[in-house]
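re: the backbone from monday

yeah here it is again, tokenized this time
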């Protein structure tokens, strides 16, 4: 297309994070997954997307869930409105055999950021657990969390 100067994808950067982590934090804490992009213009926007691998286990009627946020450097740019973006209802009864397990990927909502810089910019994923009685494991069994950053001409 000719004559179009905004809205074009200028570059795409992807990172994969594979370190298995058992999660216990109930306040927003660095997840470990990051991605760096160097915008070509101060008017560019950065579209952030991610697929987070997780596994969770709730026992004996315990519910669980977790929420996420993004930081650009030390600046908060987005967080789930509730302390959980994903929620799981636990098993019922008091027997240890009443376990609800979930494994898979969570696609996070896409976030559009305006960093107003041409310097290398790091985006970091943060997470928090809804309750501490549920076991959450990110990047379990060799799976990965993937972050994709797209620079969009502003």
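seq for it, each position gets an aa:
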């Amino acid at each position: 297309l000719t004559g179009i100067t905004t809205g074009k994808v200028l570059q795409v950067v992807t990172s994969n994070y594979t370190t298995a982590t058992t999660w216990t934090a109930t306040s927003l804490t660095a997840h470990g997954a990051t991605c760096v992009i160097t915008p070509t213009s101060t008017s560019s926007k950065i579209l952030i997307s991610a697929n987070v691998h997780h596994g969770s286990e709730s026992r004996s009627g315990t519910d669980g869930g977790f929420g996420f946020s993004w930081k650009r450097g030390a600046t908060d740019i987005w967080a789930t409105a509730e302390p959980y973006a994903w929620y799981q209802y636990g098993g019922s009864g008091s027997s240890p055999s009443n376990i609800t397990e979930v494994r898979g990927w969570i696609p996070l909502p896409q976030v559009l950021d305006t960093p107003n810089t041409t310097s290398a910019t790091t985006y970091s994923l943060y997470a928090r657990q809804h309750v501490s009685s549920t076991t959450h494991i990110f990047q379990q069994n060799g799976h990965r969390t993937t972050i994709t950053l797209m620079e969009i001409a502003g």
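The chain has a mean pLDDT of 82. The CA atoms of residues 5 and 154 lie 8 Å apart.
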